[in-house]
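Fold it.
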Amino acid sequence: MTRKQPNFILLILISIILPVLFTFTIFNSFKHFTKEQEIPQRRNHILVIGKTASNSFLNNVYKGADRVSERYNAVVELYVPSSKAEDTSLQSLFDYATFVNADGIIAYIDNDSDIVEIPISSTKNQIPVVTVGFFNQNIPQISFIGNNFSESGRILAKTAFEYSTNESALYILNSSSKSQGYSSLTNSLSVTLRGYQINATFLEGNAKENEDFLIPELFNKQKHNIIISLTEDDTIRISQLSSDTLYNENNIIISFGNNDTISTYLEKGIVNAIISVDQEKIGTLAMKELFDYKRTNFANNYVYAGLQLIKKDNKK
């Protein structure tokens, strides 16, 4: 019986081709991986920081800052705790910026933020800080980017006028009367409403404190009510009342301020209009102030961001 001889040529080809194919596959996989994981090697590192409560706001600020990052040869990092359980102090967030030796900081400031120590870089220079949210003169900032309250008042009044009829009753919830800027807003709102010949009832205190008065008004289906809420919390509280089956669907809710919850109420047709600061524009303006300061050692103390009007005319 004769024995079959192995096909040496085939074995040789296999021994050569398989390693080549294997190497080619590994190389392609590695190249694809490194391309996906590539981080821009840019000269400047900008941090966007804040507490959990400002997460939605800062996400939009980050988008605006990141959109222009290439222009400034910068990498923008958003650093916000993922939950309230992980929340930390503003000082700790500033300390983190010092630890990573950031070139600039965009920081959300709460209404009750404490004084913090100036963040210092590895070269012993102050890290420039642009603040957003609430202005606090005790924070070491080169610039604050915030709302034009007078313009906001005019837009709120104009929006109320567009929804009004001869039978409309206008109520304004003003639980932030002691906050900086709100006196300018309410003055502008009042003057503009008088120009439209619209009478308004200002309700001092928050929505919950005014429920005994508001609920009979909101549930009276014979009335056409317009409610302007000057805080996000009050907008949410008034919107929650709409879940009651007796709610008057002719009511109009206009919110000064926006967040994820209010946007959901807008989509459901419960909130009719939102006037808010353009959060992404805040990010682009913050980057401009930071890099103008780095270039000229000068920044504008207070910068007005643009305003957005979002309307939902037809309720679902």
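The chain is about 40% helix and 20% strand.
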